[in-house]
Amino acid sequence: MTRLGFLLDSETCIGCHACTVACKSEHDIPLGVNRTWVKYIEKGEFPDTARHFSVMRCNQCENAPCMDICPTSALFRAPNGVVDFDDNSCIGCKGCMNACPYDAIYINPETNTANKCNFCNHRVEVGLEPSCVVVCPTHSIKVVDFDDADNEALGILRREHLAVRSPEQGTAPKVYYRGADEASLDPLRTAIRGDGLIWADVTPDHPTPPTDEADLIARTTYTTAHITTWKAKVSGYLVTKAIAAGIMFFASLMVLLGHADQTAKVGFVPGLLGTLFLLVTGILLVADLKKPTRFHLVLTRGNTSSWLVRGAYILGIYAVSLGGWLLAALIESSQILSVLAVPVAVLAACTAGYTAFLFGQCEGRDLWQSRILLPMLLVQAVAAGGSVWLISDVLVGMPEPTVVRWITIGALTASGILVLLEVFGDHSPHVAMAVRSMTRGDQRKLFLTGVLGGLILPIILLAGSLLFDSAATTLSFVAGASALVGMWSYEHSYVLAGQSVPLS
After folding, report:
1. Could you read off the pLDDT of 129-185 as tens digits, one per residue?
2. Could you read off the pLDDT of 236-275 as tens digits, one per residue?
3. I need a surface site. Which of 44, 162, 186, 286 has the fewest CB within 10 A?
4. End-to-end alpha-carbon separation of the chain, Å?
């Protein structure tokens, strides 16, 4: 199989943008998005200043994380080794955009599907070169053919040590840079002045990386602005899913504690709440798609390596188990509830935790790669389930509220410890910047609301409910409501902060 890549010679690049224009013309790319662009940085102090150019685009990775996460295989490996895409299969989940460490994928505003550089594959397949190669006036863009011993670019690659972007991600990129300034390839080593970029606006979505290493900082004077892809719907999905899973943890626990005969309170009420919040979870997931009418493709032609697909299967199986739980409650069968208790609890844990593996496939978002994420999602589910159980106790008098209060306090405390570990741990520069954004930057208010309103206040109120029997129910109700609101606030800060680190 032919394997292709690019050699981008920054030593000869003059920043003319011919490649960008040719690309837009060749593929009818709408305004505001680009498959390839030329990044400008400036270094030095007058009169010793210099401008450096680097062409940015898809890196045609050998280990392409965008292909792994794509739920419908809309991103696929062409026979010549190029990572290509199929507009007709894309559901617009935006997972590929967060998986790409190179900021190279965008949503086409006209088709609502993910697009990227595909090496002008329609030209390559008929023996032509990519349009950017043809128009480059200084021959700074060269095709690397790894299977052609006489290939000019391959010869350069074998003779010289050329740089690649973000090698630590392990994607094995096939775009190589000759003579590129290190600061132009690492967006954390450039500052963006408050007076804006050339031909672009500074937005919160492309912040200036804070650093104390002033000698390493250059000024970015031109690049593209890339928007945050996953927002409030994803944050909401994390909370509704936690509730749907957590409430059934407590329902199963009550059955195991000997309350199976209370089929209405341990069967119907939690089963109904779990089903409703699972339904809301599904609605949020579909609503966040750019192509929601294509959601069925996840099930009919799903890429099983994607945790978007695996998660859909888990949610589906969990939904069936909830249906069985509700049926057992309706026919008042304590025996069936007893049989279902452990399997439902296990499926609830899977439902709560699978998102850690989904976020783990987002190679471009280092904050989400944390080993802390899985235990955090599990204890959050317990806290969310306990909160809803205590809120329900005000209305229908749920069993064992004291036990639930203690467990919820434990889950909230564990969440707090995990937050501290996340904030004060030893981080890479990318994670450190994301944490800084969450705790001291644009997401600071959300984060503080999550910690104060979602952890500290509920713990205090629940402790008070254990001390003062007369006000226990009211205090527990307020604690549960505060915990849920705070959980969403924390999750929203986490989701946004993970996407705040510039990748290009």
Report:
1. 999 999 999 999 999 999 999 999 999 999 999 999 999 999 999 999 999 988 899
2. 999 999 999 999 999 999 999 999 999 999 999 999 999 9
3. 44
4. 30
Architecture of domain 4-222: 2-Layer Sandwich (3.30)
Rg, C-alpha atoms of the chain: 26
CATH 3.40.50.300, applies to 232-498: no
As a whole number of angstroms, the longest Cα–Cα distance in the chain is 86
Give the integer Cα–Cα distance in Å for 194 and 192.
7
The two structure tokens encoding residue 231: 């927002």
* CA separation for the pair 482, 495 (Å, rounded): 20
Sign of CA dihedral 21, 27, 30, 35: negative
Say what the pTM is: 0.93
Phi, psi of 449 (to 5 degrees): -60, -40
Give pLDDT, residue 201.
41
Tell me the CA distances in angstroms from 444 to 228, 236, 452, 484, one per residue in order: 17, 18, 12, 18
CA nearest neighbour of 42 among 217, 226, 225: 217
Q: How confident is the model at residue 202 (pLDDT cuts 50, 70, 90)?
A: very low
CATH 3.30.70.20 in the chain: give the residue spans.
Answer: 4-222
Residue range(s) of every CATH 1.20.1630.10 domain in the chain: 232-498
- Residue 23 is which amino acid? C
C-alpha span between 115 and 32 (Å, rounded): 13
